[in-house]
Design goal:
By secondary structure, this protein is mainly alpha-helical. It has two domains: 66 residues, Orthogonal Bundle (434 Repressor (Amino-terminal Domain)), CATH 1.10.260.40; 32 residues, no CATH class. The protein is built from seven helices and no strands. Helix 1 crosses helix 3 and helix 2 crosses helix 3. It is globular, with a radius of gyration of 15 Å.
Amino acid sequence: MQKKIHPIDTFAGEKLRQARLTLGLSQDSVAKQLMHPITFQQIQKYERGSNRLSASKLWEFAEVLRVPPEFFFPTSDHTCMLCENPSEVHLLQIFRTLSKARQNALLLLMESE
């Protein structure tokens, strides 16, 4: 049986990816800057939401990425939206696996409807 990914883990992973890319950092670079370094593969798992972030690791990421720890948590409005519609979470997970070109093509298709 496949492990279900909690919407909050997906949200935190997306925020991790967003903050990392905003600073122009690679997964490997961030992994090595942590107080307790990890592999870039572990960051990939966090960003996909397939591995949960511990409180201490979340704190380390916040320090490296220069964001407050609460950056990784949704507001109550986001929480409700994510929990009510697992299809949207699944769509986001699939979207992340696509190349930039395919992501852009999909966005164009969706916006044309």
